[in-house]
């Protein structure tokens, strides 16, 4: 990553945006989880990606890693986050930081109540590698598929 002086912006100028998750397309992550991309290349992001993932009661996502750090804040509900094999109970506004390459996953701690997270990847070039299969895909490629499908 290039070095930037403190008074030099680390991104090019782009139009500000107000993003309303209730008005944006979501896509299924499988197993009762769906994601709403927020700050992405589509709105001009050059430095980081953000979005929300909503989990139905009992839903979870597979253990995976990323090629960059990720921070997640619980917006609604209670979750179990597994980071490098250790489980932690997290609740509203608790925030995690997971370094690049470290296996982790989130699952809804409730069998009936919804759970929602806000995620931030430290790179617009973020990838996700599923631990079990070793399959790697760009995070924003998933977003492109959702936009192309135009589904909710």
Q: What topology does this entry show?
A:
Layout (H helix, E strand, L loop, with lengths): L26 E4 L2 E5 L11 E7 L8 E3 L3 E7 L1 E6 L2 E6 L3 E4 L5 E5 L6 E7 L5 E4 L5 E3 H11 L3
Antiparallel strand pairs: 1-2, 2-3, 3-10, 4-11, 5-8, 5-10, 6-7, 6-9, 11-12
Looking at this protein, list some descriptive labels.
globular, 152 residues, 1 helix, mainly beta, six-stranded antiparallel sheet, three-stranded antiparallel sheet
In N-to-C order, the SSE pattern is EEEEEEEEEEEEH
**Proportion in helices:** under 10%
Strand order in the sheet with the most strands:
1-2-3-10-5-8
Strand content: 35-45%
What is the molecular shape?
A: globular
Q: Give the strand tally.
A: 12
Structural class: mainly beta
The number of helices is 1
Task: Tell me what you see in this structure.
- The chain is mostly beta strands and 152 residues long.
- The chain contains 1 helix and 12 strands.
- A 6-stranded antiparallel beta sheet has the order 1-2-3-10-5-8, with helices on one face. Strands 4-11-12 form a 3-stranded antiparallel beta sheet. A 3-stranded antiparallel beta sheet has the order 7-6-9, with no helix packed on it.
- The model has no long low-confidence stretch (mean pLDDT 89).
What's a concise summary of this model?
The protein has one helix at about 140-150; strands at about 25-30, 35, 50-55, 65, 70-75, 80-85, 85-90, 95-100, 105-110, 115-120, 125-130, 135-140. Helix content is about 5%, strand content about 40%. The chain has a six-stranded antiparallel sheet, covered by helices on one side.
